[in-house]
Amino acid sequence: MGKLKRMDQVKDIIKTYIATKSLKATARQLRVSKNTVREYVRRGQVIQDDLSELLRLSDDEFLAIFYDAKEKNVNQREAYFLTKVDDWIKELRRVGVTKQVLWEEYRLEH
Length: 110
Description:
elongated
């Protein structure tokens, strides 16, 4: 599977699949790949045969089902990156500090 879908998109995929009962119809209606629909439906059915029950879960429980640990690590890195942006903007105002220097420092840390 390629790029991950947002949680609202995944919920739309599940809702549409429940309504149509067809991978192909869901893919056409939402303009996504049949393989994308198949993958999210498969992930949901591993946990719960009745997909409508998944839509009643809290956001945290829903995330745990559809996003694995590898994807969580990416989100943690993104969260760290976003916390550092304000500091980097301040640093860029200093003489001799460039985006390249900040990027190289970031790459050394991660």
